[in-house]
Structures are given as structure tokens and as C-alpha cells.
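As a next step, we paired sequence with C-alpha cells, yielding the entry below.
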Amino acid sequence: MPTPSAPLSPGTPAVVRLLKAGREKVRYDAAVRFDDGVRVTVTAPWSLPTVRDFGFVRFAPGDTFTEHYWRDRWYAVKEVRDPAGAMKGWYCDVTRPVVVRGATLLSEDLDLDLWVSADGSEVLRLDEDEFAASGLAGRDPDAARAAVRALDELERVARGGGPASLL
């Protein structure tokens, strides 16, 4: 287990590095909003210069993400708002617990995701096929079980009151 890091100070800059299968998938700048030594919250703009249409939601330049990472939980919860501040919903990533090194957050994506619409009417489990194809269950069965438990927990919470109740 990584050595615990000191909490980051609110208002300071941070870098988020999202890893997948040990490789950096994306890196972006963020601002620290909260860190109690367990949960760290940052805000960041949509990190791509183009729109990404998932069918159930579109992420676009100008969108703002308030991202909650835990040092002891197997997921991250990202609240997504449009440029006018209207809530789009929550994108929940199943990840290993975040590792904070200096002002860098390292989050390893384990393929499973959950989308919850702003009004809670849509709760979608995503990428279960990618998770199965990743081979994680064979390489690291404990991590695979933790990932499935995390997705189940996120779905249960989303259907019972929304991801905001995790905070």
C-alpha cells in the first residue's frame, strides 16, 4: 500500500493523470477544492478540445468537472456541468484508490463505469465488456472483485439517492 500523502491545500493547482493498463490515457490540470487526507476533490474543465458524444451525454469544451477521488475507495465520482452551470449528471469511474504524489493525482481506470443523469432517471452500467476483455480477473483477481463490488455499490447508491450521497 502506498504511503499516505499529506492533504493538498484548497485553491492550489494539481495535475490529474488517468492511467489505463499502466499507461497514461489522459493528463490535465485541475484546481484543488478539498482534501481531508482521504477524499480529494478537484475541479477541471473538459480536457479535450472536441465534443465526445456517448449517446446518453455529450462532454464538450466549456463543461466543468468536479471530481472526487478517494485514497481508500475503488472509484471516483465526477459531477459534470455545462458552461451555464446546469447539471448534466455524474460519471463514476471504477478505479484503484487514488495515489497522490506531490500535487499529482494518479487514478488507474479499471474499465467499469456508471453514468447517472442529473435527474437520476438514468443509471447506466458501462463498459462491462471492456472489463471482461481486459483480463484483470486473470491477472489480479482481488482487484477484479474489488472493481465489481465498487460498481455494484455505485449503482446501489445511485438508485437510492444519487452519487452526491457518497460525498
The radius of gyration is 15 Å. The first strand starts at residue 13 and ends at 20.
